[in-house]
Specification:
The complex is a heterodimer of chains A (224) and B (356). Chain A has 224 residues and is of the alpha+beta class. Chain A contains 6 helices and 6 strands, in the order ααββββαβαααβ. In chain A, strands 4-3-2-1-5-6 form a 6-stranded antiparallel beta sheet. In chain A, a hairpin with a 3-residue loop joins strand 3 and strand 4. Chain A is globular. With 356 residues, chain B is mostly beta strands. A 4-stranded antiparallel beta sheet of chain B has the order 3-2-1-28, with no helix packed on it. In chain B, strands 4-5-6-7 form a 4-stranded antiparallel beta sheet, with no helix packed on it. Chain B has a 4-stranded antiparallel beta sheet with strand order 8-9-10-11, with no helix packed on it. The longest helix of chain B is centred in the N-terminal third of the chain and has 19 residues. The chains are: A alpha+beta (224), B mainly beta (356). Chains A and B meet through strand 4 and helix 3 of A and strand 4, strand 17 and strand 18 of B.
């Protein structure tokens, strides 16, 4: 009888503790009870967004012929205002959340404006090539001009200080942002519907890889 | 019975001879270790070649030590990791040179770091505040202080412990004008702010002052870029800003190669060692500024763009660790020795640590 009770207690203990451990083990930025991005998609959807749409790296075509002051660079990381940055970021072994940001305009040189769970919208300094050891992409919106890209970057800078948006389907709010929503909104709100680079593949939420794979974006840079 | 004892003795002696006398090298016998992704590999120099000793340790959690955030002491290396899998959240680590082990904390960023021989100081930057942390040498937090941001953003680009003070290089953005400002905060070691000093030398096309070193009573500060190029990228800077902590005078040293991005000091030769941003400067150029006669020498260490290297000094030589090669450079005879690391499976080296 005593042994049975001990076994029951241990089993019950495991059942209570294991889910908590699983959630905590995935990383410090995930809160218990708060919906996570991966919990809202099916395995098929996850597989679909892990498959990258093949695109050639064309470099920063908007300025390559603009008479660059220094040596020409094709396919390098760019600090031009408004360039979109994407990286893969696996919070678990299977699901690739990805992460997105937008190169900040002056006076935030060498910075990318990002929305992260811990800090909300904030400029983070340093190239993603250095900050992230995984894959990194930079894309530009085909239908916008350099000046419009700069406006998108300036718009993103005006969102600095706003909190993180955990309601991933709520993309139309402008009082809080998650990473890819911020980048999408920066272009959507400054250049109009023609610069909407969401694929709507995953309901109304916007995944970072949508920005990379959208037909209206071109690859400026890629690091494997 | 006695025969069995003799047999056992012979067997025991044979085993002792076979295994006991074999000298196996451990990471403790190595001259240095190289971090390649999460793992560190130990090496020795052998007749001007490298000899691999073996794996020393491994950093867990998929995050990798960053090549550009390294503070080395006799006992340990302090740094921060990449943020892969946790955007915005690097780990702060201490690598013990003797034990070949990592200790990490997951408590915000180390936007700037400085070590005074006893305590590690680091900062975390938020939009509304800057947080200063003071840790003991084993990363235990001993003091924490917050400063509300009075400007749109207050960055801490560098911390130098000098004497009983901390000099903090600040980049800020004025809320009304949007103008960038470079400042120096002077703190005591209880993290109380003593002074706030403006150190800009111009109102036009200000660039951010990113890193600094201390030589005597002067600070030498790099200004990588100014204004924008035609292609929208940051424009080239050519200036090392000097600040005299006694006279409070600002000065400038012009470097011939643009985009000076990081700076080190060779005390033995009284040289500034300057890294130029390889995103914009081709062929991995490094400049040495001789503070005795103000002469400059620029060397190239690799071909093409994006050839970053972490810099270490050891026994009078300079070591530049690229992703898949190590270059030893002797300033006195201008001799370069290159070691190919690909043959050891190293394709993403980040930090080089010489043994204690």
């Amino acid at each position: 009888m005593k042994k049975k009770n001990i076994v029951k207690c241990i089993t019950l203990g495991f059942l209570v503790v294991l889910p908590l451990y699983t959630v905590y083990a995935e990383g410090p930025s995930i809160d218990i009870g708060v919906p996570t991005l991966e919990s809202q998609y099916s395995p098929e959807q996850v597989t679909a967004w892990n498959a990258e749409v093949p695109k050639p790296v064309v470099g920063d075509w908007k300025v390559e012929n603009a008479g660059a002051a220094n040596e020409a660079r094709v396919g390098s990381w760019s600090w031009r205002d408004g360039v979109i940055c994407i990286t893969d970021a696996k919070l678990s072994g299977i699901i690739n959340h990805g992460h997105a940001g937008i190169v900040a305009a002056a006076p935030y040189h060498y910075a990318v404006i990002e929305a992260n769970p811990g800090t909300g919208v904030k400029p983070h300094y340093g190239s993603w090539v250095t900050r992230y050891s995984g894959q990194v992409w930079q894309v530009g919106v085909k239908s916008t001009s350099v000046a419009q890209d700069q406006k998108a970057a300036q718009w993103a800078a005006r969102q600095i200080g706003k909190p993180y948006n955990r309601e991933f389907y709520n993309v139309w709010t402008r009082s809080k942002f998650y990473c890819s929503q911020l980048v999408w909104a920066a272009y959507r709100d400054t250049a109009g519907p023609s610069a909407d680079i969401s694929l709507n593949s995953y309901g109304a939420a916007i995944h970072p890889f949508e920005l990379r794979d959208h037909p209206n974006t071109a690859l400026i840079y890629r690091k494997y | 019975m006695s025969g069995k004892i003799i047999q056992k003795s012979i067997l025991g002696l044979s085993l002792l001879f076979l295994f006991g006398c074999q000298q196996t090298e451990s990471p403790k016998d190595a001259d240095f270790v190289i971090f390649n992704q999460q793992k560190s590999l130990a090496f020795s120099f052998y007749s001007d070649k490298l000899k691999e000793i073996g794996e020393a340790t491994e950093l867990k959690d998929g995050r990798v030590p960053r090549w550009d955030y390294v503070k080395e002491t006799d006992e340990a290396v302090y740094g921060k990791t990449t943020e892969t899998s946790h955007p915005g959240s690097p780990l702060i680590y201490r690598y013990d040179k003797t034990k070949h082990s990592f200790k990490t904390i997951d408590d915000g960023d180390a936007y700037a770091m400085g070590f005074d021989g006893e305590f590690l100081y680091r900062t975390d930057v938020f939009t509304d505040k800057v947080v200063f942390y003071k840790h003991d040498e084993l990363l235990k937090e001993v003091l924490k202080k917050e400063f509300s941001a009075e400007t749109a953003l207050t960055l801490t680009n560098g911390i130098l412990p000098i004497g009983d003070k901390l000099y903090v290089l600040i980049g800020s953005v004025d809320k009304d004008s949007g103008q960038h400002e470079n400042r120096l905060w002077v703190l005591d070691k209880n993290l109380n702010k003593l002074e706030d000093i403006a150190i800009d030398y111009t109102d036009q096309d200000r660039g951010g002052f990113l890193r600094m070193v201390n030589v005597g009573h002067k600070l030498y500060i790099v200004e990588p870029s100014r204004g924008l190029r035609n292609d929208g990228e940051p424009g080239p800077g050519n200036t090392i800003v000097t600040y005299d902590m006694e006279s409070r005078e600002l000065g400038k040293i012009k470097v011939d190669t643009p985009y000076p991005y990081d700076i080190f000091y060779d005390e033995e030769r009284n040289l500034l060692v300057i890294y130029h941003y390889t995103l914009y400067v081709k062929d991995a150029k490094w400049t040495f500024v001789n503070l005795d006669d103000n002469s400059q020498r620029t060397i190239s260490l690799a071909e093409g763009f994006d050839q970053d290297a972490s810099f270490t000094q050891h026994n009078g030589d300079y070591y530049f660790l690229f992703k898949n090669k190590l270059v030893k450079y002797n300033y006195d005879n201008d001799k370069k020795t290159e070691y190919d690391l690909k043959q050891y499976g190293i394709e993403n080296a980040s930090v080089l640590v010489f043994e204690k």
